[in-house]
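Researcher: Please predict.
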Amino acid sequence: SLYFKRTDYASADKQFVAAIATRPNATSPRLNLGLSLVRLGRFDKAAREFERVIQLSPDAYAYYELALVYEKLGKHRDAEQTLRRGREIATAQDLVQRIDEGVARLRGEH
């Protein structure tokens, strides 16, 4: 979204909601809405969007983003479990590395 690229997350949020209204089972607008909501500090709503993406089509990146939100919400156990689930299906090496770093951080192993 152009609004997202311009860091106008409130306008991007509206665009993604409209896209979801027309295609409720599409994961891309939900993932983008979750990212926008994170930037707006609306972590509970972001978590719901990432959870829905995972329900519709398990995605390692969605697991990673959901884990980061759980961490921000102080749900460290959920964050670690979510990272581990994402690690099981991650194929991109850079994402695998970020997931492993996240697990180590949550376990205090930096």
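Model: Helices lie at 2-5, 9-22, 27-39, 43-56, 60-72, 76-89, 93-106.
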